[in-house]
Design a protein that fits this description.
By secondary structure, the chain is mostly beta strands. Helix content is 7%, strand content 36%. A hairpin with a 4-residue loop joins strand 16 and strand 17. The longest helix has 15 residues, at 3-17.
Length: 679
């Protein structure tokens, strides 16, 4: 045998040894009689999963579950354990069959048919659902979310943490409500909109006793005393509203004018809380590993309420939730590519504990009951067990949009106790609360949070609708050395009251670099530090800041008192604010909540401009030159027009003669911000 023939034979043997195991699934398949081949596919993903699970480990060949286009309905989540793992070099891949055109849809919903006009009101259509239907709080028509029957938003008179006193006439039917146990009261606080069950109603005093508590002080001081009822039959009075009566299993709905034949439309009600649930045993170093999902749509998951109804449903960013549509715990080397996650009741994805090297890329996560992606547990301080940490995960080139549809305080991306999170090139928008939140420790205590990268993201229309307060495009908490927030664009931030900020370093934020970001059209300050130390804010553009006259273009909220771990609110707070451009139409340029607000801050080589006040701009209550003399800040900075190319059309690139360039400002390249369409 010649050397060439021998080499060819060895190559052929290697190809044969690495031949892939393909398991086929089709809506037309048969779990009982199929064998998983292309000619005799299985009908469900679960049946294919069982075959893959039976393969000897470690795998020595690629394994793919090839799913034909169509619908695959789930009564419960797909469950993955350690036994479902792939092996290094040989992952288990669940994907749309690339040889078949169409969309693979994994649906956690029941389709509703059998509609007829109500005998009592022909504008209301009704359908009788099976007795085993799981109670639901969401309904969709042709993929469009509909609204639980609700009242208008009203203003209560007074409150405590356990009751609300309304005004005369605000309680429908004087409080004699149908299925009172299912009626929900939404009470606005500052940065949350809590959902509450009702214990009882005193019709004579217009007082509502709450079954789960409320933070009355936040509701009255910055929540505007706002509330509304939802999920009550008496409020079913508008097109697009629905009500499900669990006692009779009757779903009532007022159709839109275009919805003349409901049985011909795709009406869906979610059932399971989660669509995919993977649980390993990270404490014992047993992970669910090397699993991939590609080209699959995960749609319809129900709202989780019972855990928080038993305690409270008003926590920041809805961190009381215990699961998500896709929920990983104790997993390594997973990936989700070109997936869609939509029409869910909580967060789209949660990488909870013990999750390493997971990739979410080129995907759309939208129409969310709370937020988009949650990374890490709701846990502050230090995680001593390194196997339980959440490290080196990536979210890139995704569109994350339209959240807060049930829990309004959901964040676009909520990264809590995380290390080396790579959040890049995403488009995050239309959330009622914060766009990106990083860290979960209030104050100066040690944490496990470090080395996170938030870069090249387009974050916009945050605080959408002006319903909540106290938020930012990017929000941070606690000590997180090595974290960088760079090259992001943030614009259009709104709020109900105060706190529609661009970049927001909240309590205890330390050792964070914020660089080369462009922030514009925010209601309050472009940058706000509550308190923290050693943060670097450099080479950013803060333009059209404080459009609502909240505070100023730049704000420091440092407090008085001692400054230590037990009482971390004193005037040790610090940051370096250098080589930035601060540009406002009007209002103060700098604002402090007390006289020591900027005492430890280094500000220099910045370019400031106030379009209306020009040289009379307000710096801590005085002129620019007097501010320089009095406070010793910004000694090399300028009060001068930065010469943007076209600020009226949000083009904040600089003309060659910009004075900011002479101070060392480096032009910011925004061409790579947001998802890369070519990747």
């Amino acid at each position: 045998m010649t050397v060439r023939k021998r080499s060819l034979l060895l190559w052929l043997l290697a190809v044969i040894a690495a031949a892939a195991v393909d398991v086929h699934v089709s809506p037309d398949g048969d779990d009982a009689n199929g064998d998983g081949s292309l000619q005799a596919p299985f009908a469900t993903i679960q049946r294919a999963q069982a075959v893959v699970r039976s393969l000897a480990r470690p795998l020595t060949e690629p394994v793919a579950v090839l799913i034909a286009p169509g619908e695959y309905r789930l009564a419960a989540a797909l469950e993955f354990g350690v036994e479902d793992s792939g092996s290094d070099g040989f992952p288990v891949v669940y994907r749309r069959d690339p040889d078949q055109a169409g969309e693979v849809r994994v649906l956690g919903a029941a389709r509703v048919t059998g509609w007829a006009p109500s005998q009592d009101d022909p504008t209301v259509w009704q359908a009788k659902l099976p007795a085993n239907t799981t109670y639901f709080r969401q309904m969709f028509v042709n993929g469009a979310r509909r609204v639980m029957a609700r009242t208008d938003t009203m203003e209560y008179r007074s409150c405590s943490d356990n009751y609300v006193q309304t005004r005369m006439g605000d309680i429908p039917k004087g409080g004699d409500l149908h299925n009172l146990d299912d009626v929900e009261l939404v009470l606005y606080e500052s940065w949350t909109a809590g959902v509450h069950r009702i214990s009882s109603i005193d019709q004579w005093n217009w007082t509502i006793a709450l079954a789960n508590p409320f933070s009355c002080s936040y509701g009255t001081s910055s929540g505007g005393k706002r509330f509304y009822f939802q999920n009550l039959l008496e409020a079913l009075d508008a097109e697009g509203e629905f009500y499900y009566d669990r006692a009779t299993n009757v779903l009532s709905y007022i159709p839109l004018p275009s919805e003349t034949d409901l049985d011909s439309l795709d009406v869906e009600v979610p059932q399971p809380l989660s669509l995919l649930h993977a649980v390993g045993d990270p404490t014992n170093n047993r992970f669910v590993m090397n699993v991939q999902f590609q080209d699959i749509a995960f749609e319809y998951a129900e709202v989780e309420t019972e855990p928080c109804f038993a305690s409270y449903c008003n926590g920041q960013s809805a961190t009381f939730l215990t699961t998500a549509a896709i929920h990983l715990f104790g997993c390594k080397d997973w990936s989700f590519s070109h997936v869609e996650i939509a029409h869910v009741g909580g967060y789209g994805v949660w990488l909870e504990k013990g999750v390493f090297n997971t990739l979410i890329e080129k995907s759309q996560i939208h129409d969310l009951g709370a937020g988009g992606v949650r990374v890490g547990p709701a846990q502050g301080g230090v995680e001593s067990n390194t196997l339980l940490r959440v490290v080196n995960n990536t979210i890139t080139d995704c569109i994350i949009e339209y959240g807060g549809n049930y829990y309004q305080m959901g964040a676009g991306v909520l990264a809590q106790q995380v290390q080396s999170l790579n959040l890049q090139h995403n488009d995050i928008h239309y959330f009622y609360y914060t766009g990106v939140s990083v860290g979960w420790t209030w104050g100066y205590a040690d944490t496990s949070v470090s080395d996170n990268l938030v870069a090249y993201n387009l974050i916009h229309h945050i605080g959408y609708g002006g319903l909540l307060s106290d938020m930012g495009c990017v929000y941070t908490l606690g000590h997180q050395p090595g974290t960088k927030i760079i090259n992001n664009i943030c614009h259009d931030v709104d709020s109900y009251g105060y706190g529609a900020w661009g970049l927001y370093t909240d309590e205890g934020s330390r050792d964070i670099e914020l660089r080369d970001n462009v922030v514009y059209n925010v209601k309050c300050a472009g940058f706000h530090q509550h308190y923290g130390t050693d943060n670097i804010i450099t080479n950013n553009i803060f333009a059209d800041a404080n459009t609502g006259g909240c505070d100023a273009a730049v704000r420091s909220s440092q407090w008085s008192g001692t400054c230590d771990q037990a009482n971390p609110t004193g005037c040790c707070s610090s940051f370096k604010f250098t080589t930035n451009i601060v540009y406002a139409e009007s209002g103060p340029m700098l604002y402090q909540t007390m006289d020591t607000g900027f005492v430890n801050m280094t500000l220099d080589y910045n370019t400031y401009w106030n379009v209306k006040s020009e040289t009379q701009a307000d710096f801590l209550g005085t002129s620019f030159t007097k501010y320089q003399s009095k406070f010793g800040k910004d000694q090399h900075s300028l009060l001068s027009d930065p010469q943007f190319v076209n600020p009226l059309n949000n083009d904040y690139s600089l003309q060659p003669t910009s004075p900011a360039l002479a101070l060392g400002f480096q032009p910011i390249d925004t061409s790579q911000v947001g998802p890369r369409l070519t990747v």
